[in-house]
Amino acid sequence: MYKQPPKEHQFTKGKSGNPTGQLNISDKFLFYLMTKFLQVLVETKVKTKSLVKNMDNVC
Description:
It contains one helix and no strands. The chain has one helix at 25-58.
């Protein structure tokens, strides 16, 4: 239907696609590490709380 959009809706020269774009590999890896760290932190906290409750029952 359209061959070219109007000039005001075209990408500027030297810039195309999605300028903010997809996360690069290092950002993805950093996000992965942070989520794993938080998972371990939460699991450790839950285990610690249950361990403390068990210790209270023993004493």
